[in-house]
Automatic annotation (TrEMBL):
<keyword id="KW-0456">Lyase</keyword>
<protein>
    <recommendedName>
        <fullName>Putative pterin-4-alpha-carbinolamine dehydratase</fullName>
        <ecNumber>4.2.1.96</ecNumber>
    </recommendedName>
</protein>
<dbReference type="GO" id="GO:0008124">
    <property type="term" value="F:4-alpha-hydroxytetrahydrobiopterin dehydratase activity"/>
</dbReference>
<comment type="similarity">
    <text>Belongs to the pterin-4-alpha-carbinolamine dehydratase family.</text>
</comment>
<dbReference type="InterPro" id="IPR036428">
    <property type="entry name" value="PCD_sf"/>
</dbReference>
<dbReference type="GO" id="GO:0006729">
    <property type="term" value="P:tetrahydrobiopterin biosynthetic process"/>
</dbReference>
<dbReference type="Pfam" id="PF01329">
    <property type="entry name" value="Pterin_4a"/>
</dbReference>
<dbReference type="InterPro" id="IPR001533">
    <property type="entry name" value="Pterin_deHydtase"/>
</dbReference>
C-alpha cells in the first residue's frame, strides 16, 4: 500500500500544483472546455492515461466543465500516486 502524504508533503504538493484544490484527502481540479464534446474527448484521453497508470480519478462532467478528483482509496488519502496522476492530467490539459 502507498504511504499517505504528511502535512508538509501536502503543502509542497500545493506549491507544485497551484491549479489544484488540495486537502488532506484529495486533489480536485475543474477544467472548462468550449463545448460538451471537447470535455468528453478530454475525459476519454484522461481515462486512457488513468487505465495505463492503474490509478483512476473520480470524474464529473457538467456540460463544458470536467472535474477530476484524485485520492488513493485503499490508502485513505493522498499519496505520491495522486501527484503523479495530477502531473499526467496537467500535461493532457496543456
Amino acid at each position: 500500500m502507498s504511504e499517505l502524504l504528511d502535512p508538509s508533503e501536502r503543502e509542497e504538493l500545493s506549491k507544485r500544483f497551484p491549479e489544484w484544490d488540495i486537502d488532506e484527502r484529495r486533489m480536485t481540479r475543474t477544467f472548462e472546455f468550449d463545448d460538451f464534446m471537447e470535455g468528453v474527448d478530454f475525459v476519454n484521453l484522461l481515462a486512457d492515461v488513468a487505465e495505463k497508470a492503474g490509478h483512476h480519478p473520480d470524474i464529473d462532467i457538467r456540460y463544458r466543465r470536467v472535474t477530476a478528483v484524485l485520492t488513493t482509496h485503499d490508502a485513505g488519502g493522498l499519496t505520491e500516486s495522486d501527484a503523479e496522476m495530477a502531473q499526467r492530467i496537467n500535461h493532457l490539459a496543456g
